[in-house]
Structures are given as C-alpha cells and as structure tokens.
Amino acid sequence: MMDASEAIPREEHEAVPQSGRLGRVIDRLAIIPALGLVVAMLILIQEVVLRYVFGRPTNWAHETTVFLCAISFVYGGLLCTARDRHIRVVLVYDLLPPAARRVADILISAICGLSSGAFAWAAWQMVKRSAWRPDGSFHLETSGSAWNPAYPGVLKVLLMVALAIMALQFAILTVNYARGHKGAR
C-alpha cells in the first residue's frame, strides 16, 4: 500500500503537479497545435498533388504550413514548461541530493521566469511595431507575398502571449517548489 507522503506517480507526458492548474490547462490544450501539424501535413500533400499532378499550385500553402508549424513550436515552449522538461544540465542535477535539487528547481524556475518575462517585454516591443502603424491605427504586419496574409503579425502576438504565460508558469513553479508543494490531482 502506498504511503500518503510518497509522490503521486505521473506519466512522462503530462504536466508536473507543481505547475498547478495553469500547467494542466496548457497540457490539455496541447492537442490543438498538434492537430495544426496534421493539418499542415495534409496541406503539403494537397500542394504536391495540385502542383505535380494537375500543374495548379496554390499561393497559400507554403505560408500556411509555416504558420501552423511555427504555432506548434511556440506552444512547445509552454508545454515544456508545464511538464518541467526544459533544458537543464542533468549531469550535475542528477548528482544532487533531494534538498539541493529543490533549491536548484527554485533557482532554475525563478531565473527562467525572469528570462521569459524579459523576452515577453522584448516581444511586446516587436508587436508594437508590427501591429500599429505610425499614425496609431491598428494593422497587423503582413507577409508581403502575392497572398499577403497577416501571419507574421499574428505570430508575433502569439509569441508575446506565450512568453507572458510562460513567465507566469515559471512563477507558479518557483512558488510551488519553494513551498515543497507536490500538487494534488
């Protein structure tokens, strides 16, 4: 029988308990950008058929697939944070005793949170230039291609939002690691 003080076993592919409710929401929503990758693949298959079988390529397929893949990469940062799968030097980390690992988790989460916040601020500076004209009117940056979608502007906004959420997720992780919170499911 499992003692109440033992950690709750979890799957490798789910949010860590310390990520809280936000981490669980991020984990559940991961299916959306994953489906975007499937849609991108289907668009590319369609484009190959249209181009090489019918000689009638589209002018939107390439930009749309790049956009869908970019969204999944941006979301991947959020998912890695919620699952506590971000980069760390495990050669050193794995050698640490549990108390030192806890301190390392607190420091790593705090530093990553500050970095994510700084990157979110930098992304905001980029969004200001790509979403508003000099006269103050709203207009998202477009690609400049023949189709000219607003994908670059939308992607910059999504990146800024993801970085802000990532900073919040790291703050939650920092607090929960500092409290020694294991989390409840």
From TrEMBL:
GO terms for cellular component: plasma membrane. It is a multi-pass membrane protein. It is found in: Cell inner membrane. One of its GO terms (molecular function) is transmembrane transporter activity. Residues 41-171 form the Tripartite ATP-independent periplasmic transporters DctQ component domain. InterPro entries: DctQ, TRAP_DctQ. Its main location: membrane. The chain crosses the membrane at residues 29-54, 60-82, 103-124, 157-178. Keywords: Cell inner membrane, Cell membrane, Membrane, Transmembrane, Transmembrane helix, Transport. The complex comprises the extracytoplasmic solute receptor protein and the two transmembrane proteins. Belongs to the TRAP transporter small permease family. Part of the tripartite ATP-independent periplasmic (TRAP) transport system. This is TRAP transporter small permease protein. It comes from Paracoccus haeundaensis.
